[in-house]
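User: Second chain of the day. Same drill as before.
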Amino acid sequence: MIGNKQFWRGLGLLMVVALVGVACGSSNNGPTSNQTNAANTSAQVYGGTATKGGTMKLASIGDVDYMDPGQAYTVTFFSTVGRATLRTLISYPGTPSLDQQVVAAPDLATALGEHNADNTQFTYHLRPGLKYGLGLNGENDPGVTGQPIKTQDIKYAIERLYNPAVGAGYATYYDNLVGAAKCKKAATYGCQISGITTPDSNTIVFNLTKPTGDWDLRMTMPATTPVPQSVASKYDKTKDSDYDSHVVSNGPYYVSKYTPGETIIMKRNTTWTASSDPIRKAYADEIDWKEGFDNNVCNAKVENGDYDLAVDCVPVGPQLQAMSKLGKRFFNGPEPCTGYIFLNSTVKPFDNIKVRQAVNLVIDRDNLRR
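Assistant: Same format as last time:
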């Protein structure tokens, strides 16, 4: 991956991201594990003092899969729009230290979850001064924009994951909640999970059916970001929710313009305050993301300084050899996900273990790696 020096100073570690079994491509694949797969997409920082202001320019081949945090399930969304415009109770710090990046830290919450001895109950309290920003494409939602974030909206965000109209990718991460099984079976709008209680608008309690020591990590996922029910409910009641086109931001930026497959522009939320956010520095005033480039063109534009960072473009062959000579503008860091090929054992002929063994025997692993 490559980026220019000015970009890294302006980015201020905006897009550090930690994921739990997250899909890597632009398809809405299901989760592979409940174990934490902490990953850093862009946390290598060049020397110099970070300065506030300016525009970050991103270039990519593809687009995000969804804007709705309940639907989205790709690294592309999590590490860019998700990180910039949405906040969760717990997140991961923006730091150049690979060791610190994987340590969960409070975001909307004042602290990590207060839990009982057997990790079956977790309680969180919201920081003061948290407010909603503008909606997608700059929508101003009366009664929401500029208003305080409430724990009831976090409760609703998790409950809507069991609504088929939303089409959530990893609702199973929250199946340990008391009452989640009922909503999973009901599969309809409006089902309330009894294991989530909100004693007041700044407190939320999660009651679990069995010990879940990694609950804080599950609270880092974008699907748990507050979703104002007053906005989303009218879309979630339909056959296919269109909250994806009306997502309300709560981070330092909001999506001011989104043309799928072409452009995403993010601008500052005036409702966000640095004092309420220990995770994001948010130095840039604006983020301008252009999509649809050919892979080689994408890398070349970043190399030439036309853009600041390649989101999903990967230099290969001669281009990789040339870029490796760029010094500090080129970095080789951890891969944010694990790529793999699986055989669907529920369909013929792969329901036959002998066939699966045969494929594993003859497959060209070296070629796949290349």
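Confidence is low (pLDDT under 50) at residues 1-22, 26-47.

User: Great, on to the next one.
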